[in-house]
Amino acid sequence: MTFREVEKHDLPDIQSAGHLYEHEETGAQVLYLKNDDPNKSFTIGFKTPPYNDNGITHILEHSVLNGSKKYPSKEPFVELIKGSLNTFVNAMTFSDKTIYPVASTNQKDFRHLMGVYLDAVFQPLFIENPQILAQEGWHYHLEDPEDDLIYKGVVYNEMKGAFGSPERQLYQQISAQLYPNSIYRYESGGDPAAIPGLTQEEFVDYHKKYYHPSNSFTILYGDLEIDQAFADLEEYFSGHGKLSEEINLAFDLSQPEAIEFEDSYSITAGDDPKDKDYLAIGWHVADPTQALDSFGLKVLEEILLGNNQSPLKKALLDANIGGDIDGGSEELGYPTAFFVSAKYSDTQKMMKFNEVLIETLQSLVENGIDPELIEASLNKITFQTKEAAISEDNPRGVLYAITALSTWLYGEDPYVNLEFSKYLDQLAELANTGYFEKLIEDKLLNNPLRIEISLKAEPGKNDENEAVVLRELQEFKSNLSTEEINTLVKDTQDLIKRQDAPDRPEDLAKIPTLKRDDLTTNVPDYPLTESSFYTETSFYHAEQFTAGIDYVSLYFDLRDFEAEEYEALGFLSNLLSNLGTEKYDVAKLQTELDTHTGGIYGTLSIFEDQEGKVQPYFVLKGKALEGSFDRLAELLKEIVTATDFTDTLEISKITQRLISGFEGAINNRSHVLAANRALSQIRPATKLGELSGGIDQFNYLKAVREEVKGEATNLSLQLSHLLRRLLNKNRLNVLYTGEQSRVATVKETLQDAFIGLSDEPLGAAIDYQPGIKQNEAYVTAQDVNYVGIGADAKNILDFTGASNVLATAIRYDYLWNHIRVKGGAYGSLYTHRRNGNFALGSYRDPNLRATLDVYRNLPEYVENLSISEDELNKYIIGTMSPLEQPKSAESKGLAALSRLKNDISRKDLVKLKEEILATEVDDLAKLANDIQNVLEDDTVVVIGNKTQIEAEEALFDEIFTLY
Description:
- With about 950 residues, the chain is α+β, with helices and mostly antiparallel strands.
- The chain is about 45% helix and about 20% strand.
- The strands form five sheets. Strands 1, 2, 3, 4, 5, 6, 7 and 10 form an eight-stranded mixed sheet that branches. The chain has a six-stranded mixed sheet with strand order 16-17-21-18-20-19, sandwiched between helices.
- Helix 9 crosses helix 12 and helix 9 crosses helix 14.
- The N and C termini lie far apart (about 60 Å).
């Protein structure tokens, strides 16, 4: 055997046996996590140290998936998604490593995925074809000699969007300034200012050096055919020999060159920069050799910064250092940093920031940390860690691969962080010995490896930078000869020609795929029984194995609440469990929650049946170990019946944190925000979601922020009134997910807890209406756009198996090619729901009108759709894939209730699968006219760049500044 087993290791925390192997020829290391999990996974990773900010590791990650020797189609990655039952397929660039993970519950499919990925990383076509770097990284784009010269590239535009986030800039500067003599000073994702310096020669040389079996780390996981997996690895490992020198990522630490560092970030031109600066203080605190301290620092993060009542966070908020405080332990690769940051601050407050931080930490060391706080923080981390080990919402094998690499990559044991119970138990024993106080003293107070960062808000900075880039490109073009300009035009047209050209059928045929015969119409049965809770309400039990955890959700019926109240209801859902009550002040409540439960949080659930009837609920969710359920019930009751809304200072802090989180969402998922905003103007249920959690909610929060600067009496009264209306037996339904043996106890405990609620009849159900229909644009400080449209497909485009297969074709053929490959956007969105919601969106998109044109031309694409039976087969399999995703016990319970409330039976889902499998090519083209009719009454919502939005102002009925 060419793989020699080095050691075995029992890993009870993850229900696995670890087997470590070494490939004899190359020294490549393989870790097999053997268990009976059917969701098997393969991950191969490489040490990939950056040497500057040109993004070579990130662009390489994209490019290896653009064709390989055995699979020479332009996009094998996309072809895999089309024709696979994968539960995970992706690639990820970290600060010093790049990984390629896949997962599937189907053994045949798993082997297909593994084979394509191995060929991609070891035999990519970009080595011979520079057009791949041009498309995925950057290129000079000039379609006509008279056009303006611009940069285009998928990663280039992705990183322009990423750099629109001040948090991204802040974290990068912490790494760069804290480790100035290491690879961690570089932006591995790529700085848009440096990406255009990357050459094809550098690209090829880097791959040759680092994508070698000797520099690879492979993790296999689950119930798989291990001998076959080794044979597949051998095919790609053999013949490479062994690298003469190991790639070492460790480095000598030294004092940071600058104790203080100042920079700026962009806000919208014309925006007031007052109190919009960022401050941060960071320390180097650990490396992979310090396992116990690494776990200890995660607990310390929870102690100091876990919530608004945590001692350091509270002290900084009370001192008005910033409107929101964040931070904690951050593994940056080989080094681990600990940082504390202040958002909505002023650079003039850095001295005060230091003073409060040091005084607070010194007080904790001198006076000791509250033992109850330590216990609560340990319990919270332990609960989260152990719950994740039984969850199936994400492929555990991929998560464990990343965890193993966090030590293995640096020469340490790959099992360290997979044996979390050992370290958490040690920390519990050390909790009252002064361990955490000493951690503060050694790692923070007396640590010379420390940096201070200030980011000043600068109105219009991105616009100015973009103008500079355009001027430089204009000047560059003006100095080119006619021949050189013609060469750029030819290169651009050649790239477009490649992008437009269909793959050769023989190349597509080489990509392995499942067949329809490999699929079934089976739909998992998520059992749900209904019984009476109180006279007019229901107790739902979703029977699932939960490893001793009780999951409870209280559903308060909102049928008679006016639409105008949903903004406040959305806000209320975020306040409950974060404010004090009659029995507990807010700090004590947080300690109780962390000590005895897995958390309590609120949300709104808006169901809609097949007739369009809206069923809205205010939901409070909680979870706890079986032995702590009585405490969970007591805390649920206390929060629901006795929350204190007079603490406007605490409400102000929560409001600012929510605004901060929403701004992060604007930087990372505005395509979803734009699509939902458009749909809210069409469908009442989506409008309620918009009011309670979308742009309407964001604007409401900003208004609340101003109101709580005063007495805010009206706000407190409104919130109290809303909660009193909720406290009604005739509103309260319960969902319990857990063991059958627990049902009677859980039900009786909750009935007793809420026996004192009022018993008033509910008002008549409100006939909710959609929002005002208009095209809208929302200006941000970003360089890129998120272009969304929404429409009502109900009674126009039927939700059938064929429409779902068409959706897969639209996503992974039409939109992928036109929005991402040719348009240069990072991603796109297409949704068509059973309720009629129909939306399109783009993500980190350099275009606006051109993207809308792509949407408008969709019917023409569908009408002319001509695909082979093999291609149709792929689309069918790709359509089935999301229907096969494993779920955690909690998610199964929520899905069971959702099926009931949305009036979707198991029979409906089986029928959908049958229709998908029966779809023929002609069924797709027939839908072109239906899509045309849907798009004739769409709504446009764009979030993004001010200059581009203003240039297209005629498209919009209203233009707003988002932030």
